[in-house]
Amino acid sequence: MIFTTLDVWRDEHVGWLVFDRPDRGNAMDATMLNDLEAAWQELDRDPEVRVIVNTGNGDAFQTGLDVAQLASDKDALREQSRRTKRAELKLTAWHNRVWKPVIAAVNGVCAGGGLHFVADADIVIASSSATFLDPHVSIGQVTASEAIALVRKSPMEAICRMAFMGRHERMSAERARELGILSEVVEPALLRDRARQLAATVARNSPAAMAATKRALWGALELGLTDACRAGAQELISMWGHPDQAEGPAAWAEKREPQWATTST
Amino acid sequence: MGGEARAAVGDYQHLIVERHGPVGWLINNRPEQLNAMNAHMRGEFADAWLELDADPDVRVIVHTGNGRAFQTGVDVAEIASDGVGMQRYRQSVEDFDLHFTSWHQHVWKPVITAVNGICAGGAFHWVADADIVICSSDAQFFDPHVSIGQVVSIEAIGLMRKMPVEAVMRMAFVGRHERMSAARAYELGMVSEVVDPPDRLRDRAQALGETIARNSPAAMAATKRALWGALEVGLTDACRAGAAELVSMWGHPDQAEGPAAFADKREPDWQRQESARR
Lengths: 265, 278
Description:
The complex is a heterodimer.
Chain A: E1 6-11, E2 14-19, H1 30-45, E3 51-56, E4 60-62, H2 67-72, H3 78-85, E5 102-106, E6 109-111, H4 115-119, E7 123-127, E8 131-133, H5 145-153, H6 156-165, E9 171-172, H7 173-178, E10 184-186, H8 191-202, H9 207-220, H10 225-238, H11 243-253
Parallel strand pairs in A: 2-3, 3-5, 4-6, 5-7, 6-8, 7-10
Antiparallel strand pairs in A: 1-2, 8-9
Helix pairs in contact in A: 5-6, 9-10
Chain B: E1 15-20, E2 23-28, H1 39-54, E3 60-65, E4 69-71, H2 76-81, H3 90-94, E5 111-115, E6 118-120, H4 124-128, E7 132-136, E8 140-142, H5 154-160, H6 165-174, E9 180-181, H7 182-187, E10 193-195, H8 201-212, H9 217-229, H10 235-248, H11 254-263
């Protein structure tokens, strides 16, 4: 499928979902909001795609809702307003129940609603030029679900500080790495290469085992520890007897790459 | 170190259980197999935690390993070779009826995991379920489960409550193809201390254990119940349950002894905890 606001393609086992409104800081207008849902589903359905990289074209990674459109054409965003009210957003892999690993490669500024894509990724790397801020309260908006997810995943003070400093302060990529919001900072020119490399590495692992792992770990954010472990145990058992569980150790013993069963989630 | 003779200790094949002063030691001892856990060792863990927990002279427990690995998860050779595979664990996993960590065994004494060398896959159970984690400077952390077609679940779920999640997910999905260093584990707060050179790890763990043992055992048990219990529920409910643990110590002799010893500039003489078990 061709999208006007996203570049979406597959390269070997790696699916790419790239924000493509570079002259608007990759802000999400009504078209992009629709495109995102379709793009995640397309990549999720393709059994050749084992891991997805999410990045942006231009100087920005993602700067949230297109405020210009919000100001000029409220009707265009009516459907999204309804979804926001019902907590039924379909922006991210998590919203769209994509159980393939997702790597966010933050190529520049990541602001406001752009933080959804950091919060909802499994692995996050960033260019050394990336910055993080949450300007919601500076324009009279509330910060909610993206910060709520980040609070589950990273030290809370840093997230609260971003929420309350608004547009008046930016967090550097290096500080985000220190805090464990992301795991790697790369030279700007090398970001995509590194993302491709990392994705290719992840793609060497069993797709079925990764999908069950992802369900177990994200599901754990919903529950208390013991209940989460109980639910996680069911995901663990779900793989027992799967062909990948014989193939993995066999390939390891024979020092070759495993031939994983194809899977669709 | 040393101390008086104690009650008979269990006879273990794959673990070593020792006492040095107030510190109980649980040492993984299958160094040839990188301390991988076979079915027998799994049973021994259950007994060893209970033995140390029941001993009132043990106030804090250190868990480490012999050889170049701390632990490397389940013994894949046993799984692959005897035709039973993971099925032997099906019922216990299905019921989440596990007994190989201190958390599984409801041990309310402080537990220090001292990671020596390699810590892979299922080894994270003992990182996740310890109260304090230190490691040697040559420690390496990775989770190869998905690289051999296995799911990462319970140990990562525990870790995710205790440290930045992205790092846990990255280890889960990169599998055996990347290792986390001791320095990064320290930055992320997965461990609180990196001991260098590595051969000082046990001395440091003993010293840390002796420091912790200077605190009120009863207050530490209630504290541990409050903090681990908080991982089960929402914030307000956790504070409510924590308040009940707080109040449970009011009137305990340690609450008079603590301030008195402080005023007298002497070590407190804490009440012996015959059993912290509940």
